[in-house]
Amino acid sequence: FTFPSLLVLLLALTTVIVFLKSDLTNWLRLQDQNPCACEKCLSEDNLLALHRLNHSVEPFLTANTNVSADAFRWWKRLQHEQRDFNYYKSTVHKLFKLFPPVVDYGEPSSDSCRTCAVVGNSANLKGSHYGSLIDYQDVVMRMNTAPIKNYESDVGTKTTHRVMYPESAMDLDNSTHLVLFPFKINDLKWVIQAFTTGFYGRSYAPIKSKIKANKNLVMVVNPAFMRYVHEIWLKKKGDYPSTGFMALILALHICDEVSVFGYGADNDGNWSHYFETLKRKNFKTGPHPGKHEYALIHELAQNKTIRLYKGW
Ligand code: C5P
């Protein structure tokens, strides 16, 4: 080796070492910034690749949520709400005198891995034996009046969150979160009155006047979130999204890993339930874009964003 070539070799070696070291530091820093402690976190690549997830939309109403006039207008159309924005705002104000003003649903953190089971009411759960798999998840979200008793081996026994609206409400135990999907101002009034004086208004179906549940665990979904699911996720298909589809997108926002059970129509295209025989054979999927919702759920499963358990 001549002196100049030795110098060049040394220089090259130093460059490689410096490069590797900075790369390693970067890599270690990236590891440190993992959004959660699961093997694979939801907020990663796949979900963003769908160009639909928007973390700036708050999933739950808080005392300080600003629902835009535009979002209110969308929401008002859902169930022919006649009353105005100011009436809505004063109702929301009353709401948070009674319920926790800020919802604590545990932001994702690098040292926890929150796994969620979202359990729809499809008849495909019958005979599935998914019970223990469902109970194994940290969060188990069930819908409306879906029963557990007599269906334990297929649907499990644990419920941490129950999604409902006044016409589909049921009493809960003290440790279950009541997740209200409000479709009209009356639904906000209902939740206030059902916990206090009793609700005596009317609707398209009978409504429970009082409810037993833990008032500190009430979570009210933000109307702007419902609009986001309709406009961004479903590209405005159907009149509005089904409760189950909105619950699934909610899970994508608050969980690190999502397993989905009990979604999917029967062979005739009806949303039949695991707990009853279908009464209206031409129900199909009502005002909701059922086929489109299922296609998207399927897409999420195929790109491994969620685990979809299709039942039998
Ligand atoms: O029928 P219900 O609204 O109580 O069911 C809860 C949710 O489960 C629905 O909003 C829908 O998203 C989902 N579902 C389904 N397939 C069925 C029944 C219900 O995907 N056969």
TrEMBL record:
It comes from the Eukaryota. It holds the Pfam family Glyco_transf_29. Residues 1-22 form the signal peptide. It is a single-pass type II membrane protein. It is found in: Golgi apparatus, Golgi stack membrane; Secreted. Its main location: Golgi. Substrate binds at Q79, N121, N144, Y204, Y240, G244, G264, H273, H288. It catalyses: a ganglioside GM1 (d18:1(4E)) + CMP-N-acetyl-beta-neuraminate = a ganglioside GD1a (d18:1(4E)) + CMP + H(+); a ganglioside GA1 + CMP-N-acetyl-beta-neuraminate = a ganglioside GM1b + CMP + H(+); a beta-D-galactosyl-(1->3)-N-acetyl-alpha-D-galactosaminyl derivative + CMP-N-acetyl-beta-neuraminate = an N-acetyl-alpha-neuraminyl-(2->3)-beta-D-galactosyl-(1->3)-N-acetyl-alpha-D-galactosaminyl derivative + CMP + H(+); ganglioside GM1 (d18:1(4E)/18:0) + CMP-N-acetyl-beta-neuraminate = ganglioside GD1a (18:1(4E)/18:0) + CMP + H(+). Pathway: Protein modification; protein glycosylation; Glycolipid biosynthesis. GO terms for molecular function: beta-D-galactosyl-(1->3)-N-acetyl-beta-D-galactosaminide alpha-2,3- sialyltransferase; beta-galactoside (CMP) alpha-2,3-sialyltransferase activity. Keywords: Disulfide bond, Glycoprotein, Glycosyltransferase, Golgi apparatus, Lipid metabolism, Membrane, Secreted, Signal, Signal-anchor, Transferase, Transmembrane, Transmembrane helix. Gene3D superfamilies: Glycosyl transferase family 29. GO terms for biological process: lipid metabolic process; sialylation. GO terms for cellular component: extracellular region; Golgi cisterna membrane. InterPro entries: Beta-gal_alpha2-3_sialyltrans, Glyco_trans_29, GT29-like_sf, Sialyl_trans. Its EC number is 2.4.3.2, 2.4.3.4. Disulfide bonds join C116-C255. Belongs to the glycosyltransferase 29 family. PANTHER family: ALPHA-2,3-SIALYLTRANSFERASE ST3GAL I ISOFORM X1 (PTHR46032), CMP-N-ACETYLNEURAMINATE-BETA-GALACTOSAMIDE-ALPHA-2,3-SIALYLTRANSFERASE 1 (PTHR46032:SF6). Homodimer; disulfide-linked. Homodimer formation occurs in the endoplasmic reticulum. This is CMP-N-acetylneuraminate-beta-galactosamide-alpha-2,3-sialyltransferase 1. It comes from Poecilia reticulata.
